[in-house]
From TrEMBL:
This is MarR family transcriptional regulator. The lineage of its organism: Bacteria, Bacillati, Bacillota, Bacilli, Bacillales. Pfam families: DUF488-N3i (PF22752). It comes from the Bacteria. InterPro entries: YeaO-like (IPR052552). PANTHER family: CYTOPLASMIC PROTEIN (PTHR36849:SF1), CYTOPLASMIC PROTEIN-RELATED (PTHR36849).
Length: 125
């Protein structure tokens, strides 16, 4: 299927598995209104990285490198990304985010990483 990005504040006719990929709940959106299937806090940027970036377009390339490093070097993040990758093989996955800037946000990077090969995770099961 596919991975679709959508700002949580925008109405859409897209159907699929709806995943909020923000650490903080978006203001003004009720849980009922959000119609979420999942809230993937595990794959969000760390608070320090998020605060450093502060949605500054001039910092986006450095933010992208640092966020990818976080995503690909954390077993918990890789596990959740793998789960979402498996889901998108069966149905559309809609990554929901609150950022106003559609060209400089972590959801774009997350989608890019999900569409690539992930490193294998250390399984202890």
């Amino acid at each position: 299927m596919s991975i679709v990005l959508q700002r949580i504040y925008e109405k859409s006719n897209e159907t699929g598995y709806r995943v909020l990929v923000d650490l903080v709940w978006p203001r003004g959106i009720s849980k009922k209104e959000a119609k979420l299937d999942d809230w993937a806090k595990e794959v969000t940027p760390t608070p320090d990285l998020r605060k450093w970036f502060n949605h500054d377009p001039e910092k986006f390339e450095d933010f992208k490198k640092a966020y990818k490093k976080e995503l690909l070097n954390d077993d918990e993040k890789i596990k959740k990304l793998s789960e979402l990758q498996e889901l998108q093989k069966k149905q559309r996955v809609i990554l929901l985010y609150a950022a106003k800037d559609k060209e400089h946000n972590h959801a774009l990077i997350l989608k890019e990483v999900m569409e690539s090969d992930l490193p294998s995770q250390n399984k202890e099961s």
